[in-house]
Structures are given as structure tokens and as C-alpha cells.
Design a protein that fits this description.
Largest sheet: 5 strands, parallel
Shape: elongated
Strand order of the largest sheet: 3-2-1-13-14
Radius of gyration: 27 Å
Number of helices: 19
Helix content: 40-55%
Length: 581
């Protein structure tokens, strides 16, 4: 099973300049951004930055997911309006994302006029296509709060094993799944009262319609666009023949008042379920971006659009993004996703993130401890391989890897060579070295660049990091073997050795510039400092500069990165543990 391939130029085999729309899953506006979230945003941002580095046209959009009962209840508890709450959280989220270098072109909110308009439009088109159905259903109702209760707002005894204090949809003790009406001795989490059963009309998207099944089998399975693990899951859900109809169920897309969200047209007191308008928020954010930049929204979203559309998500929301979302788009007249890329979950020191242990680490607490965000970007990159495997943040390994790779190898290349150039050659690099394309070091860099480009494209940043560290070792080995410090000493007595010193240090610094280009998607802040503070460039380095970085001098050497100290990591854990109080 392979991911959907991209067209190449028939003569050269080179990919033409691509037009790409990229999204990350929308964070819910009911809590802080934590390191588990950042796995996805860092992965997406690295891929986006790589595509931009290749001079492709990329629009990267996202938004806060702002609707639903939890938002409504939290705002009520704080004595503020939901609008005030989501505005505050939006500013917190955008602050945290900026701190980790996440380069959104548009970061918006699902509580927007664009999202309301698009949600209503898609709903009306699905309705016109016979894919919306009204059914009377029975739900649990809180008589004290006068509201229907979502599954997670009901607790009671598991109907299978009798475990206490279990949610209304599944048991954490025995793993059983069930409906909230099956729960024994249920109580409302909102008010503590005993819920009653009550009927209500609900609106369903008919995902079980044969048209949806036929389309999804083609899009998800026949076209072989998804990751193998995702494709296998889709086969379970869709079946692979007319005799095997899979397990698709119709989707309840409505909720009853009171509810914070968009009211369904022509249905007073009925609201779109948050998962209906949340993915449409991708397009709403895109619409906001297009309107602000004089671009055609339809050029991105029409069925015949030549813009590639990629969604990065966690594997826990695969069902929504590979079934509901493509079907909604298909049968409402929009283009369907080129691909959906899912990643695994984050553990810390081999265990689920824990507030009591201090390993449920927020992005802001990381930044507040003045820890370098690129340490985390690099470490996550070293762990992500384009699959749905979970990844572990081992804090001891984190310290060792950053200190070894980034400080001991990468930054060390420049620190070992820059001083000789500034002191002995007035900061000027050897032009003959910069134009030498036949040296083994240059050949190795260019060969590795091809492999790293393929790895970046397939989100296998673990391979990118392996290739990069091998290059770091090769460059440092070159410097070790040439011993510029010894040449410098001998050159005091024998000036004829000065050209050799000039050559060795210039060659190492050219390789350092090339390595910086290769790592730029992962280390954007450091790359910018290298460009400006070390080489004094007036424009950023691009992938096309690998063959001959446009460097001619160095302004000096700046200390690009410090070591990670264990006591700072311990302070981070303590800060997150203490925040519980």
C-alpha cells in the first residue's frame, strides 16, 4: 500500500511548483496547549517549512475549535460569556504556537461568520442530496440544568463489570463500550442530579448511504492514498466488497439547546454538533486568508482544483477525517482531501502524561522555564517517522541527544572554524573553496540532501535527523583530520600554510551552511541566526542554495545554542506538578 503519488515533469522527472493547502487538527478552546498537542503542530510545521524551502506555494491554516457543551459550562462556571472565554484562550494558544515557531498563515476560530456560512451551505447541500434525516431519539436529560447531557457528562456504574464512577460511553476499568442509557445509577456531572430519559428530534448525516460507501471505498482504499495502518482501519470500517458492507453508521450532527454553537437553519433550538462545524473550520480559516490576500477561495476548494490538500491529525480522530469529512466535502460540491496524515500519541518517560507526576507539560510552562523550543522540535523530529506509532519523550535521552547532536556536533562545526576566519582572514572565506563542487565533503552533502528530501516529503524526520547527524560526524571528522588549530600554530612560523588554513576552515563553514539549509525546517530560529549573525546574509537560504550557498564572509561567531541541564528539566517537571495546587 502506498501513499498517492504526485505528478512529475515527463522530461526532467522534477516536481513542478506545487500549490498546497495544509491543516493541523483544531485544538479545543477549553485548555492549554501541551506537549502532546505539539507533536502534531511541530510535525506539520516542519513539513510546511520544507515545502516552502523548496519554493512551493503553501497555505497553512488552523483555528481554535470553540463550540460545544464543555465551553458553555466552563464559561458559566467562570461567570463570563463563551465568547469572552474563547477569545482569551485564542490569545493563549497563538502565544504558545508562536513560541514554538509554528508558522500558520492563518490561525482563526470556528466561531466565525465564515464558518457559520460554510456550515449552513454544506448542510443545505447535503440535505438537498438526500443525506440528512430527522429521527426521534432517547437521551439522558438533566432536569436540574434543563439540558440534554453528552455522554462524558454522565457518570455511574458500568453495566458490564459494575465499576464505579464510569463515563456514559465506556468503562475505563473493563474497557466495555455502551450507551449512556445503559449506565447503572447514573448521575449528571453538571448538577449531580439523577438524569431522566427524554426524547428529542435529532438530525443525522446518512453516512451509511450506498453513495457514501462507494465513494469512500474509492477515495480511501482503491486510490491507496493513506498510510498502511490507516488504510487497514478503513477496510475494517468500510468492508471491501458489496457483500461486506462494513460498519458505517449514520452520524448524529445535531444537539439540543442550551448549546454554544451555530443553530441549524430552519430548526429552532437545534444546533450543529461541534464535530460538524469543526472540520469546516479549516475552510473557514482558508476563506479568511483568501479574503485578506486577494485570493480565490474557489480555486482552493472547487472539485477540479489543482491545489493539494493535506490534513495532519492524531490517530484518535481518524474516523472523522477519513469518513465524515471527505464524504461531507464530496456530496456538498467541494474537493476532497489529497491525503490525511495521522501520527501516534506522546508518552513521557514511557508512561501516559500525568499531572500528578508533572509530566503533563504545557507549552507555556516549557517556555516559562526558558527552555529552547528548538530542543523539542529537534527531539520530536528525531522520533517521528511518518507512521501512526506512538512516540516517547524520554527526558534523559532528550538531554543527551540535544547536548550531543546540536551542541556537541552541529554548533561545534562553526565554533571550531569561525574564529580562524575572523582573526586571520578578516572574515573573508576562500572563494575557490566555495566554488569547488568536486570535493568529497561537498559530494556527500549533496547525496545526503537527496535522501533527506525524500524523507522530509514522507514525514520521516527521524531519517532526516539520522542523515544530518551522519553529516555532522563527517564534517567534524574532516576538521579533526585537518587540525586547523595546528596549522594555525605552524603558520606563525611558516606563512605559506595560511592558504591551507583558509581552505580547511572555509570548507567546514560551507558544509555548515549546507547543513543549516538541510535542518532549517526543524531549526528555523537557529537557521535565521546563522544567516544573519554568522554569514550576514540579506535574504534567507533556500534549498536551491545547497549546491553553492551564497556566502562570502562571516561576521563572527555567535553562541547558537546552550546545553540542556538536568536541573532545568527537573524544574519543568516540578512546575507542572506544582501547578495542580
Amino acid at each position: 500500500m502506498t501513499e498517492l503519488s504526485r505528478p512529475t515533469h515527463p522530461a526532467t522527472g522534477v516536481h513542478p511548483r506545487r500549490k498546497i493547502l495544509v491543516t493541523s487538527a483544531l485544538p479545543y478552546a477549553n485548555g492549554a496547549i501541551h506537549l502532546g498537542h505539539l507533536v502534531e503542530y511541530i510535525q506539520t510545521d516542519i513539513w510546511v517549512r520544507y515545502q516552502r524551502l523548496r519554493d512551493h506555494s503553501v497555505v497553512y491554516v488552523c483555528a481554535d475549535d470553540t463550540h460545544g457543551t464543555p465551553i458553555m459550562l466552563r464559561a458559566e462556571k467562570e461567570g463570563i460569556s463563551p465568547e469572552t472565554l474563547i477569545d482569551r484562550v485564542w490569545h493563549e494558544h497563538t502565544r504558545d504556537f508562536a513560541g514554538f515557531g509554528i508558522s500558520f498563515d492563518q490561525y482563526y476560530s470556528t466561531h466565525s461568520p465564515e464558518n457559520r456560512t460554510l456550515s449552513e451551505q454544506i448542510y443545505e447541500r447535503l440535505k438537498a442530496n438526500g443525506l440528512i434525516e430527522i429521527r426521534r431519539i432517547e437521551q439522558m436529560y438533566d432536569p436540574a440544568k434543563e439540558m440534554f447531557l453528552p455522554d462524558r457528562f454522565i457518570k455511574g456504574e458500568c453495566p458490564k463489570c459494575g465499576a464505579q464512577d464510569q463515563y456514559g460511553d465506556s468503562c475505563e476499568a473493563c474497557g466495555a463500550t455502551y450507551g449512556p442509557t445503559d449506565l447503572k445509577n447514573p448521575r449528571s456531572v453538571v448538577s449531580g442530579s439523577s438524569p431522566i430519559r427524554k426524547e428529542s428530534d435529532h438530525y443525522f448525516f446518512r453516512l451509511s448511504d450506498p453513495r457514501c460507501l462507494e465513494f469512500l471505498r474509492q477515495w480511501a482504499i482503491t486510490d491507496e492514498r493513506l498510510q498502511p495502518e490507516a488504510s487497514n482501519k478503513l477496510k475494517e470500517w468500510l468492508g471491501d466488497s458489496d457483500a461486506d458492507q462494513g460498519g458505517l453508521s449514520d452520524w448524529d450532527i445535531s444537539r439540543d439547546a442550551p448549546y454554544f454553537g451555530f443553530e441549524i437553519p430552519g430548526a429552532p433550538g437545534k444546533y450543529f454538533y461541534v464535530w460538524l462545524d469543526a472540520p469546516i473550520g479549516y475552510y473557514a480559516s482558508l476563506k479568511k486568508y483568501c479574503d485578506g490576500h486577494g485570493l480565490s477561495f474557489e480555486a482552493f476548494t472547487a472539485p477540479d482544483s489543482d491545489v493539494e490538500q493535506y490534513h495532519f491529525i492524531g490517530k484518535d480522530i481518524l474516523y472523522f477525517h477519513t469518513l465524515f469529512w471527505p464524504a461531507m466535502l464530496k456530496f456538498s460540491g467541494f474537493r476532497t482531501p489529497t491525503n490525511v496524515f495521522a501520527h501516534g500519541f506522546l508518552t513521557v518517560d514511557g508512561a501516559k502524561m500525568s499531572k500528578s507526576r508533572g509530566t503533563f507539560i504545557t507549552g507555556q510552562s516549557y517556555l516559562d522555564q526558558q527552555l529552547n523550543p528548538e530542543w523539542l522540535r529537534y527531539y520530536f523530529a528525531a522520533k517521528l517517522n511518518g507512521t501512526m506509532e506512538d512516540l516517547d519523550l524520554n527526558l534523559s535521552d532528550f538531554i543527551a541527544r540535544i547536548n550531543s547532536d546540536l551542541v556537541g556536533k552541529y554548533v561545534n562545526i562553526a565554533s571550531r572554524s569561525a574564529g580562524f576566519i575572523t582573526k586571520r582572514f578578516e572574515g573573508r572565506l576562500d572563494s575557490s573553496v566555495l566554488n569547488d563542487l568536486g570535493h568529497p565533503l561537498h559530494t556527500a552533502m549533496m547525496s545526503a540532501a537527496q535522501d533527506m528530501a525524500e524523507a522530509y516529503e514522507h514525514r520521516d524526520t527521524a531519517r532526516v535527523v539520522r542523515e544530518a547527524t551522519a553529516l555532522m560526524d563527517r564534517i567534524n571528522t574532516y576538521v579533526d583530520s585537518e587540525k586547523p588549530w595546528e596549522i594555525a600554530k605552524q603558520a606563525v612560523q611558516d606563512p605559506q600554510l595560511m592558504p591551507r588554513l583558509h581552505e580547511v576552515c572555509s570548507r567546514a563553514l560551507r558544509a555548515f551552511a549546507q547543513l543549516t539549509i538541510l535542518l532549517k525546517p526543524i531549526l528555523p530560529f537557529t537557521a535565521q541566526r546563522v544567516e544573519q549573525e554568522i554569514f550576514g546574509l540579506d535574504k534567507p537560504l533556500g534549498w536551491a542554495d545547497l549546491a553553492g550557498p551564497p556566502i562570502s564572509e562571516i561576521k563572527g561567531f555567535s553562541h547558537l545554542m546552550t546545553r540542556v541541564e538536568r536541573d532545568r528539566i527537573d524544574a519543568l517537571i516540578a512546575a507542572n506538578r506544582e501547578s495542580l495546587g
